[in-house]
Amino acid sequence: MTARDEIFATIRRSLGVKGTEAPRRHIVQERLESAPKGAIPQRGQLIGEALIDLFKTQAEAAMASVVEVDSAMDAPAAIADYLRASNLPARIKMGDDLRLAAMPWGDTALEVSKGRSDGQDLAAVNHAFAGVAETGTLTMTSGPENPSTLNLLPDYAIVVLQSKDVVGDYETMWARLREAYGKGQMPRTVNWITGPSRSADIEQTLLLGAHGPRSLHIVLVKG
Amino acid sequence: MPLTARPQRPRVGLFVTCLVDLMRPSVGFAAVKLLEDAGCVVEVPRQTCCGQPAFNSGDRDTARALAEQAIAAFSSFDYVVAPSGSCAGQIKAHYPELFAGDPNIARKADALAAKTYELVSFLVDVMGVTEVEARFDGTVTYHDSCSGLRELNVKRQPRQLLATVKGLTLTEMKENEVCCGFGGTFAVKYGEISNSIVEKKTEAISASGAHTVLAGDLGCLMNMAGKLSREGKPIAVRHVAEVLAGMTDEPPIGAPDQRER
Amino acid sequence: MTLHVTSPQFKDNAHRALQDEQLQKAMGNVRQGFIDKRAVVAAKLPEFEALRDSARDIKNHALAHLDLYLEQYESKVTAAGGHVHWARTAEEARGAILDICRRVGARTVTKGKSMISEEIELNTALEAAGIRPVETDLGEYIIQLRGEIPSHIIAPAVHLNATQVESDFRRVHTHLDPARDLSQPVQLLTEARGVLRDRFLAADVGITGANFLIAETGTSVIVTNEGNGDLTQTMPKVHIVIASLEKIVPTLEDVSQILRVLARSATGQEMSVYTTFSTGPRRPQDVDGPEEYHVVILDNGRSSMLGTAFQDMLRCIRCGACMNHCPVYHAVGGHAYGWVYPGPMGAVLSPSLIGVDKAGHLPNASTFCGRCESVCPVRIPLPKLMRHWRDREFERHLQPATLRTGIGSWGFFARRPRLYRLATSVAMRGLALLGRNKGRFTSLPLAGGWTDYRDFPAPQGATFQDQWKSRKAEGRR
Lengths: 223, 261, 477
Hints:
The complex is a heterotrimer. By secondary structure, chain A is α/β, with parallel strands linked by helices.
């Protein structure tokens, strides 16, 4: 008997089932297809400005910084301002995201390079798939558009988020992800990011920048 | 049971608990007074122990035998009341579990569980008592014993009644919901760990500035009193029923009897 | 495999821990930090209790259909280009991981925090095979330097203070300037970040645990605050997930329900910083991510817990709230428990995994205060399950004879109410007489466990039942 067969046999013996029972299989199929939602916090059930405000409040509570811009055209300037204010060189790394590519980086003094991070970049920009207001959580999806390493390796992670992509709860975010990728399909990596990296492993003292970014800056595009 | 459904003068079987029976009968008489003042007719059937020490030591046979004994002794009352969250919790939360496989006794165990209460919560929640006639001069602090707090939701009731005791000021200690380290046989089996836990408790008690500590369970009270006395801390320890009944003539728990005799 | 089990010496371990001033100070941080933070975030979310119910129900449902969800999970992992390996035992799990590491010629392996890795003593096996394991969670890194096991399931180095960490760093990081200042925790963190950054970039294989396995999508989920788990699984060519089989949940919606109670219960955060969902290896267009993705699913006795009272324990999501709130854990710390899982969850789980003959002390070393159950996000009845172990120990005569005799003689009298009244009536009057002057006893035969540390209050005298009977008799007269 293989390890796999024996494990399944023991599970079924312990549960007192054969594994072939149609009603059980039906229950499981039904749950996978309908994906019931459970208890959804009221807190995120907002629309418009109130929803955006909640996202900002929650992200800031998680120690991210948030700046709002009127349009995507204003994002590069806002990012240049942020780097300058943080005493950082005017250099950023980003992926192939078309929304980022359409922004007027040339209007700023920023030096932009493309691709994954090798650990040498101080600052990088990714575009978020969504923002979840209930906890100020960003949803980042992997791919050549927004490489996962850009979320993780730079000291300063900068994320552009569109207001229309801010949702109240995780479930609404998953619904949008299924629309984008197909039911049951996922990008290689989905990162939920809530604030900058931290650790409290030494004497319960909370310190930022454990392995990931010391700072998470969100550029929220209105409209 | 809603207030309207209870008899005018309910017959209450007092489950005095073995610790009160043996160590501190004055708590039993305080309970009787409080129940009678609330309009109950109190009776004390012959009884021993609820069986919790056996139950918690894994001796289910003894636990079941003692539970059956208690079920037989107390089934005829309108209510069963104990001046202890621990023993009331054993009857209310664990008797049904003990007989889950035995429908005949389970029915009786469930019925007994449904009408069993810890003393102070019974007074407030069932009898609708809102104040007591008592006087106790000084500052007290209150320890929430674990079983009463977590199995029976005893928290606000003792505080509500203590607030009506004349001359009494309640000052809360830090971590009043943290275990005192008694835990029945635990206190003896793991005496050293139990000691470390009760040390933190007596530290919190003295830091509260109160001159008396109250609680609703004699096991915890004996543990705290024993530690305070060993540490030489002059803080009195009493069961909350004694104060609520205005019956504080007996010396505090673990204190010498200096009365003339 | 059970080389490092010191659970049978629990009392000696506890004794040492209670004498250890430094440890006692560190445990004070646990008492203050975690508890208040959890209470604050729980109070901020009105749905928190409903979410605990929901989390419990989801885990119960998944366990009741575990075989089917595991099949579904496996097929989705495979469809995404990943590989699933099944391990009945710790040895098989180590073997599966070593096979992969050897095949790719791994020399350095970075690791995210994983309790399963501790359970199967993976680091020892890797080292024996000439592969260097590097723990990357800051706390795990520190205890790896010290050759210790975690003392807490989410805060592995909670038993240490900064001075100890400083001396370990100076001892091990010999390539750095000996005159450097490491007096502040932030300097220690910065140093670890620098040292480990190089390891992340150099590692051949990254091994992480999993907080959840999602059947719907074939996804493994890790939750961290540092981002170390993400770097562990993103940088090397091979990502191996090691997880026990009860980590399965049906859908993305289900995992979202449980995530809402996980961080709140664990660290008192609304959400941990990084919650990462990984599905298969990197995709054709991807510019980063691992080229191979393996999941090793460990049973190690868990499948036999299904259908028993201990099935409830398989709901555990390893948040650590039970130990954060446990007075016994606060007193003795995690190492006293003698194996990888400390606190109330360990007191229930360890006997299942290493045997109640070895771990028998753990379910006994509880006051049954119930605070663990009151904060458990999946509502595991921990005291009840500890009591079940005590039942089994009693059946098998595994407890100390003195306890058995004590309970036995108490039971003998308590089952005979007349005899009980007679005996107690005499005994209490006698004791009262002896103790009346002082009101207490400073020592009592057979009760050294009590009187070594505290006085025993003297009884008042005649028992309540005696006095009640005489009053009734007087009343009738």
